Amino acid sequence: MAGSMSRLPRRFMIACAARTGSTMLVRTLRTHPALLVHGEVWGARMVGVDGALAGLAPADRDALEVQRFRDPAAAMARFAEAHGAEAVGFKLKYDELVRPEWRQVRALVEADIDLRIVFLDRRDLLRRYLSHQIVLRHTGVTNVPAGGTPPAIQPFAIDIPDLLRDVAETRRRTREFAAAFARHPSIRIAYEDLVAAPQAVCDRVAGFLDVAPAPVQVATERIVREPLETLVLNHGEVAAALAEVGEGVPAAGDLHA
Asked: What is the pTM for the complete model shown?
């Protein structure tokens, strides 16, 4: 029995704020031959199903999309079907988990203490905010596949009070879900490390899932490449405001975005 149990697929969830590199992580982990990794299957719309579920007929896909909130436990079981993979997972952002509509889903995750949690952070919360604003107000582009061309971005001024609110709320949510999932096996990784050393970070995740490491391929391009001093028109004021609340500003030329 013990040997049989050890071969059960490991289940995991990527928990993160928006614009922390979760699409990059999901798509890069998918290139590992032993992993099945869904994307935002618990978003407002079901996006990024992997494996056999990606081939569902339109009517079956629509039925699963509805089932997610009518019977979350049944939908969760569908997303956990490994189809031969050694580990199967999905991502669920804090942005959804804090909303009342996701109350049942959150309760399922909190109660399922065998579900392994991969916390994905972004150390540079100014860049996280900047990335979000670029999507919302400028390009509408959330990701660029590997080999694609990132959109052009015009310099703009940051709304400093809105930035400070966003940084504080992101910190608060990080603490909230660290506490909410404290009973789960977990690992914490950072977007900046994923950009700098994707193979090493994915090897860490594989080890956490009791899966042998394997070569992976980065599957997305960074969208924001310009230095902050060039992209943010009021960079000096932004740096001063962040320093006043104890938040650091990245060094000149730091292009992690």
From this structure: 0.90
- Distance, CA of 142 to chain centre: 12
Range of the domain at 90: 2-124+172-222
| Residues 69-114 pLDDT 10s | 999 999 999 999 999 999 999 999 999 999 999 999 999 999 999 9
Which residues partner with 11 through β-bridges? 88
Closest CA to 153 of 170, 141, 144: 141
CATH number, residue 20? 3.40.50.300
Q: Are 86 and 209 spatial neighbours (Cβ–Cβ below 8 Å)?
A: yes
Closest CA to 134 of 252, 220, 239, 222: 222
Q: What is the DSSP letter of 138?
A: I
- According to DSSP, residue 250 is labeled P
- Determine, yes or no, domain membership for 161: no
